[in-house]
Every structure is written in structure tokens, then in C-alpha cells.
Amino acid sequence: MFDLKSKAREVIERGYCVLESVYDEREREQMRSIFKGLCDDKDGFSSEQPTISFHPLLEWGPKMAPFFAKAVVVDAMAEVFQDDVRLAHSGAAVFNNGLVGETLTHWHVHYAWEVPPTGLQRDNPERVLCNIYVDGSDPHIGPLIVLPRGLNDSVESKGDVGEEWEGQVEVTVPPGSAVIFDTAVWHCSKRGNSSELRHLWGGHYQGWNNPTPHPEDNTAENPTVAAYKAELPVLRGLLEGPA
Ligand SMILES: O=C(O)CCC(=O)C(=O)O
Ligand SMILES: [Fe+2]
Fold this sequence. Notes:
By secondary structure, the chain is of the alpha+beta class. Helices cover about 25% and strands about 25% of the residues. The two termini are about 25 Å apart.
């Protein structure tokens, strides 16, 4: 379905790649229904609470665990790392476009390691984000915006947090797509011009051979996740390592 080697090359050459529509409409409806319950548990949306987030997702919403076990997505990241893939952080946010301000997230990166004085000298990203855009990413639902980068380009900020940056790309993806990006990629997001909910969930991933801790690492240890791990080898691999 996808040429995973060329997807991995895109991550190396421009910082990110897209796996289009890896979750079908039935799966997307299941996700929306799980998030409906999770948002109600947090008292729902209001002008005081236009965005509801879940960190760690696998503690707040362990029923989302099976969706992490999507082989093609995990295989793409294995190609990026040239290693088996470890899930190091899970999270989610649901944005209510009818209530949020213009900016969903300001420009930021998730790179948290020291950069050598001579600059980055990596063969592969140490860690990526893989976000699932349940409703897509576009002007209607609210776009993810990235600043493309080469693997070892400088991680320095290229502008002010609230501004448009030269070279920025509004990432347009259909519902159910995965966006995989290096933690060194600067990104932000904007409100959509609809009043729909924008469901976003995902994780941070590292290769199993790279045990370096990161400040955003979080846990996924509860009986529901344990039961899914017993059933789903892909999930077990992500959380416990290769068999
Ligand atoms: O809202 C978005 O698309 C960006 C979310 C984000 O910054 C993240 O997942 O780290
Ligand atoms: Fe981010």
C-alpha cells in the first residue's frame, strides 16, 4: 500500500511524512465514540474548556490501545529508526472548533536533548511523533503546520511563536491519516473554519536500542492495556520490546 522506504526518506529529508487514511470510517467512528465518553468524563466542552486533552492517553483512555497496534504505521517508524519501535508517550486532544481561539498550538518542538557544539550528526531521528488526525488536517477541521527540515538542520527557532514562518507548510491530510515527524520539527496548529470537533491522538516513539529518557515519557500500565497486550503482538512489541 505504501512504499515505506520512501516514507522514511521523507522523514530524513523534510522532517515528516504522511500515511494517508490508514484508519477506515468504522475505526474513526469507534475512536470518536471513545473520545465522546472521555470528554464527558472531563465535564465536556465549554468556553472555559474549549480543548480537552488526555496525557497519558493509555491511562485516561486504555480502550484506545488497540488502535496503536496498526502494523503499517509501526513498520514505517521501524524504517525511520532502522530499529524495533517503542511507544514512549501516549496523548490525545479534542479541540472544539466552535469554542477555541484562532491558535490551537503555538510554534514548538519536542526535541529535548543536547545539541553538540558542531551541530546534530544523526543517521536517524532518535524519536518521532506519530499523530493520528481522525478528522483529517485541513483549513476546515484545523491544519497542522510544520516547518520542513533536513535531518541535521539546526533546531533553533526560525521566528516568533505567534507568527507565520517563511517556508511553513499547512499539512493537508484526509481523515484517519498518520503524520510521522521528527521531534526536531517545529510545528503549530490553527483553528478550523468549521464548528466541528478535531480529534487528535498519538504517541512519541523511539527505537528499542535507544533507551535515552525524554521529559515527555509517560506510562501505559493498567489491566485494560495488559489485556490488549496479551491479544495484540504489535501492541506488546511497542510496550515490551521485540519477542
Ligand atoms: O494540533 C496539532 O495538530 C499539533 C499537535 C502537537 O503539537 C503535538 O501533537 O505535539
Ligand atoms: Fe507538538
